[in-house]
Amino acid sequence: MSDIITKLNHVLNERKHADADSSYVASLYAAGIDKILKKLGEEAVETVIAGKGGVRDEIIYETADLWFHSLVLLAHNDIDPQLILDELDRRFGLSGLDEKASRSKE
Ligand SMILES: N=c1c2ncn([C@@H]3O[C@H](COP(=O)(O)OP(=O)(O)OP(=O)(O)O)[C@@H](O)[C@H]3O)c2ncn1[C@@H]1O[C@H](COP(=O)(O)O)[C@@H](O)[C@H]1O
């Protein structure tokens, strides 16, 4: 797993024991799942707007916010980000069109 994802995931798990007044992540956990999902939705929308705008730095910045809040959601659910990388690895080389076609035969 990438070094920064590993380090960040470690901090996100540590923040489960932190004071909400001194940590943004702890404040999200304290506010609960609906707040985490609200932030994730906002960041998704901001990423879409940045994508539409086409400004490279804004796309990078907003995607970082989106990935960060996705990692918060995973940590909140005790899901190791490695499992997402494993899922992408499992899909690697399988065309999305072929995967979709195989689903319609089920
Ligand atoms: N990578 C991040 C990171 N990316 C984005 N953010 C925060 O995510 C929030 C994004 O919300 P918005 O863009 O909507 O900004 P906002 O208007 O301030 O947010 P709201 O008031 O609407 O909640 C901002 O408060 C950002 O500072 C992050 N906060 C923390 N981290 C990492 O998480 C670690 C732990 O953070 P703390 O728990 O705060 O110590 C940090 O050391 C960083 O490594």
Shape: globular
Number of helices: 6
Which structural class should the secondary elements be placed in? mainly alpha
User: What sequence of helices (H) and strands (E) makes up the elements?
Assistant: HHHHHH
What are the segments in which pLDDT stays under 50 over at least 5 consecutive residues?
none
Bound molecules: phosphoribosyl ATP
What's the total number of strands? 0
The CATH topology is Helix Hairpins
Subcellular location: Cytoplasm
Keywords: Amino-acid biosynthesis, ATP-binding, Cytoplasm, Histidine biosynthesis, Hydrolase, Nucleotide-binding
EC number: 3.6.1.31
GO molecular function: ATP binding; phosphoribosyl-ATP diphosphatase activity
Structural summary, described in words:
The chain has 106 residues and is mostly helical. The protein has a single domain (2-104), classed as Orthogonal Bundle (Helix Hairpins), CATH 1.10.287.1080. The chain has 6 helices and no strands. Helix 1 (3-14) packs across helix 4 and helix 3 packs antiparallel against helix 4. The longest helix has 21 residues, at 33-53. The radius of gyration is 16 Å and the shape is globular. The model has no long low-confidence stretch (mean pLDDT 95).
